[in-house]
Automatic annotation (TrEMBL), chain B:
Locations listed in the record: Cell membrane
Membrane-spanning parts: 6-29, 59-84, 96-116, 142-160, 191-214, 226-251, 258-278, 312-331, 338-359, 390-410, 416-437, 467-485, 515-535, 555-581, 593-615
Keyword vocabulary terms for this entry: Cell membrane, Membrane, Transmembrane, Transmembrane helix
Membrane topology: Multi-pass membrane protein
InterPro entries named among the record's database cross-references: ABC_transp_permease, LivM-like
Top-level taxon in the UniProt lineage: Bacteria
GO cellular component, one term: plasma membrane
Protein name: ABC transporter permease
CDD domains listed in its UniProt record: TM_PBP1_LivH_like, TM_PBP1_LivM_like
Gene Ontology MF: a single term: branched-chain amino acid transmembrane transporter activity
Amino acid sequence: MPGSIALEARGLYKSFGGVLAIADVSFTVRQGSLTAAIGPNGAGKTTLFNLVTNLYPPDAGSASCFGIDLIGRAPDAVATLGLVRTFQTARAFPGMTVLENVLVGAHLRVRAKPWLQALWLRAVRDEERAIRRQAEALLEVVGLADRRDDAAISLPLGAQKLLEVIRALMARPRLLLLDEPAAGLNDVETAELARLLLAVRAAGVTLMVVEHNMSLVMGIADDIIVLDLGRVIATGAPAAVQADPRVIEAYLGREAEIA
Amino acid sequence: MREAVEIAIGGVLAGSVFALVAVGFTLVYSVMGVPNLAQGAFVVLGALTMYSLETHLRWPLLAAVPGAAVVAALVGGATERLVIRPARRRLPTSGMLILMVGLLTLFEGASLVIWGSQPYSIPAFSGERPAAIAGIRIPTQGFWILGATAASVVLLWYILARTVFGKALRACAENPVAASLMGVPVSRMTLFAFAAGAALGAIGGEVLGPITSIEFDTGRFFTNSGFIAFALGGMGSFFGAVVGGVGLGLVQQLTAGYISSLFSNTLTLVLLLAVLIWRPGGLLGGGGVRREDVREFIGASALPAYRLTGRAAWSLAILGAGIVAVLPALLGGTGLTGSLVITGILFIGVLGLDLLMGYTGQVSLGHAGFMAVGGYTAAILATRLGVAPLVATGAGIALSLAVALVLSLVTARLRGLYLALATLAFGLLVDSVTVGLTGVTGGPSGLVGIPSFSLGGYAFASATSTYYLVWGVAGALVIVLANLARSGYGRALRATRADQTAARALGIRVPRYKVSVFLISAALAALAGSLYAFHFHFLSPEMVSTSRSLEMITMLVLGGEGTLVGPLIGVALLTLLPAAVQPLATYKTLAEGLVLVLIMVYLPAGIFGGGLSGLQRLASRITHLSPHAGTASSG
Ligand SMILES: Nc1ncnc2c1ncn2[C@@H]1O[C@H](COP(=O)(O)OP(=O)(O)OP(=O)(O)O)[C@@H](O)[C@H]1O
Ligand SMILES: [Mg+2]
């Protein structure tokens, strides 16, 4: 149902040694929206993703996805709920081809049991053929179809990030978290990525994107969450956030204040 | 009372040498993050080199002792330069560990060639007559041992704590990247660590030599004990290593003296397993935390991206099946058929290992332990209780599965290095039980009178019939595993090997896959163990010992991990070559070690994997040349 909440965080805290990486962070991501999380380097954006996907537990606070509690679930169980993420540094699987990488994304949708796979029965073959077709179609979309049989890590970094996005899409997520998907992409590829993200949103997938590329963010985001020093300092529509003095200050640095 | 004190003194003396080896472990581990499993070989190298210097070159004791230590340091340094350094840039931790296993085998093989297989006893430094203090007899050599250990440890402590060099070394241990950014010559530190570690081990061997006997493969024992001391002490703490070494010596001697040496060995290994599992930070210290979202380093060249698919795979399969079918007829009942049976049996075991290591990236250094569990169970049931071989084999597999399940559940939290070391401890534990439980296993001399394998009244008594049985099973397994490998299950395994965190983010239940693949590999090893026993009508501990585990790894890596059929090349080479060329037997260990080291450094994808990607590159160059040449000239 439209208007409901895809992701909700309440009072999240996380510190590493003495560094308070996330402090009292609460926010919501509306279902069907494309929400961007922005903030200066070290603001805690990646940590936020890591907390929500349970790479490590928060010191305090809660998070839920479509009303289901996330904290305490293993990262793979989080994915089972329909929440899939990508990583800031490209993480194509080495030792696998481009196509195989994309196929891994379909893992949760493979129905055939391993003992059936071992016998390569008809049902297995049909299923494999179907996900292979979907993977090839997605590779076509991002222009990697002719490199499908190359080793994934032989791709340029930008292409590896696109590969990671479509790999995540193969899981048919309900909520997709992307950590700096445009890093390392040139202008043409960035435009392609923007089109892809909008298409994904149009298909009904909720997106939360961490991104430093402001023109991309302002162009496609419905909502923006601004983090600075581990705290949420502003939320709202792109235009409102852009005009917010606290956001400008966070980005321009605090020297202005001292002077 | 006097006896107890004398035993305790013996424990402290042996423990001092363990401590020296453990300190060597600590040095290398601090700068590299990988324990040098070849460390124990330097104990042997030191002792035997000193022996040769004294008896053949007639060097006086005072020259031979430092002389042999210098030789060991040179060998250690050369190893770092020639092997470790080039490998380090390309191999992940698991690969480095296998490389170290190769080095240990290489050194053992070299010692066998140089010094032969007889045990050496080195004359005591200052006469054989023990000193007596308050009625307690102490071998005078004991003072040399304690003195040498104390002097070495104090010298090392001084270098580490009081010199600029030591400070740099410690910085490099804490954070090699930061250290190298700050201008610390990290490579020189690794060189020092290896050379100094080797010299420490050698000194230990020289002073201990007179009160024990040393032969070419005693190094294993010191690697094991030194490593246990190092793990008990907390992996990376010098103080912990010394305490761990002396403590281990004491516990071993006291339990061996008062209970039994079987109990002593078993107790130490159980202790090691327990520490690895519950206190990976050691008994004294605590472990550090690591960033989970940062990717572990993966040596990309070690992972084959290209596999045979479609028509190429089918052609190869049909060709292979054809060769297997006609081979016995061609050989006409020569002894080679028997060697081919062994090849097939080991291939079954290595297939499981490939699924575990090649596909999933989990290193098992004790896989022959499962061969032993399966083989002994089946053999004992069939021989003593007359159980049908098929049922006995099933029971062996079931027991092996149960053991594997327990082991994989308790080690589930362990990653890479720790899992490898826990499996090593498991393998050694099985070794000590098969040797020690004489009543059940027949002890070192083995179990005899095992019947042939039989199915519904048909006994596979001849080599040829066993050949078809074994290769039929191996062929079916290849097909089933290849099917698994190319579908969702196989992709999940490979994703797990490549990047666990990213795999989990896509919903792959990594722990579950690790357990299931561990079970499959244990079952296949148990099957291989049973077939082995039924084929030979005999089973002895060394047929399924840790040496066998390491040999299986060599076979796997040589053929090509993660390719299923590639390892067959490795198995065949290492089984058939020594059988065909008997006079080379002395060189077998040396050759195995050398091959493993060379492959790890220069061809981590193995013969099959390397060959395949070479062909792939060639093919893509040819196809790319023609069309692209046109575009380039027009553009
Ligand atoms: N596992 C960790 N251990 C120690 N410190 C950490 C860890 N993860 C994050 N931090 C620290 O927490 C703070 C926030 O880091 P985070 O990576 O979340 O920032 P970010 O907003 O993603 O920055 P960037 O834009 O550079 O990616 C930083 O100071 C970082 O050093
Ligand atoms: Mg970040």
